[in-house]
Specification:
The protein has 337 residues and is an alpha/beta fold. It has one domain: Aldolase class I (TIM Barrel, Alpha-Beta Barrel), CATH 3.20.20. It is built from eleven helices and twelve strands. The chain has an eight-stranded parallel beta barrel with strand order 3-4-5-8-9-10-11-12, surrounded by six helices. A hairpin with a 2-residue loop joins strand 1 and strand 2. It is globular.
Length: 337
């Protein structure tokens, strides 16, 4: 099966095409990784997943999505993550971390709420304070400092969260960015914040390690971002990036027709138009669905979110079906013979 084939991106080789995408677990205390996180991530490595991406991790306390999200804004948060990284590597999997700032969609308590413009996401959220240029610079620098800590923890990749209506997406989208300075208005200005974050992270992140981005390919609104818009942004940043993780929506409450593979065409479009490897995701669960996507050349990796929550050993099942028993940890072989 092609889904079990190796793939090399620059100098990093992944043992298969299966990705565990970032999924907030809401189990951290003061941003610290716990025994829960250790078990959660290492069990998917034991289950054969080729590439694990740790959940959205705040670069600042107010940048978390909730009070219970992981953080990487101080050195004390490195040790717990490093233990996870070391164990995941023991099973031959690669592991990355998604660095994030939630902006106006943060639900942390006793923390300030910021956005590119003083516009609430929806009735569920209060209006944020508009970020000043000095505050923007400080957040950019926070991404860079978190990248240094991610390297100390031993991560193979960093994924910058520019999707789902969080701060970077808020700057990119005309639905949430009404600024009149160099960070708003024109297409290039609205992508400036993402560009600065990527450049700052790249300057702090070892050149041999991969830098990736997760994007929402559509706002599902004629006045918002389209996949063509996102393609233009990514083309301008292509030299900084290695992999694109393709999602959609999240910056406005718009109806989305959900079905297995509903985001695959976005991934296919960006793969072809930008020319970088892509991760596809979207309510997928069967081996055949994943195989069709990889074999059909629509994506280079496929992320299984809910399915890997339900079945941590999904990939080992695929190895067994393909009679690649040497890829399954010896202690688990009796389950397949």
């Amino acid at each position: 099966m092609q889904l079990l084939s190796t793939i090399t991106v620059r100098n990093t080789t992944f043992k298969n095409r299966i990705v565990m995408p970032p999924m907030c677990m809401y189990m951290a205390d003061d941003g610290l990784a716990s025994n829960f996180h250790f078990t959660h991530y290492t069990s998917r490595a034991l289950g054969g997943v080729g590439y694990i991406i740790v959940e959205a991790t705040g670069v600042r306390p107010e940048g978390r999505i909730s009070d219970y999200d992981l953080g990487l804004w101080n050195d004390g948060q490195i040790e717990g993550l490093a233990k996870i990284v070391n164990e995941v590597h023991e099973y031959g999997s690669k592991i990355g971390i998604q660095l994030s700032h939630a902006g106006r969609k943060s639900e942390t308590t006793h923390q300030p709420l910021f956005g590119p413009s003083p516009i609430a996401h929806s009735a569920r959220y209060p209006a944020p304070s508009e970020l000043t240029k000095s505050e923007i610079k400080a957040i950019v620098e926070a991404f860079g400092q978190s990248a240094l800590r991610a390297d100390k923890a031993g991560f193979d990749t960093i994924e910058i969260h520019a999707a789902h209506g969080y701060l970077i997406h808020q700057f990119m989208s005309p639905l949430s960015n009404f600024r009149t300075d160099e960070y708003g208005g024109s297409f290039n200005n609205r992508s400036r914040f993402l560009k600065e974050v990527l450049e700052e992270v790249r300057s702090k992140w070892p050149n041999e390690k991969l830098l990736t981005v997760r994007v929402s390919a559509s706002d599902y609104d004629p006045n918002g971002l389209s996949v063509e818009d996102v393609s233009k942004i990514l083309l301008s940043l292509k030299d900084t990036l290695d992999i694109i993780h393709v999602s959609s929506g999240g910056n406005a409450t718009r109806p989305i027709h959900l079905y297995p593979g509903y985001q695959i065409e976005f991934a296919d479009f960006l793969r072809k138009s930008v020319g970088l490897p892509v991760i596809a995701v979207g309510l997928l669960n069967t081996q055949q669905q994943v195989e069709d996507i990889i074999e059909g050349g629509k994506a280079d990796f496929v992320a299984l979110g809910r399915e890997l929550l339900r079945h941590p050993f999904w990939t080992n099942d695929a190895y067994a079906k393909d009679e690649k028993f040497d890829k399954i940890p010896e202690s688990y072989l009796r389950a397949y013979r």
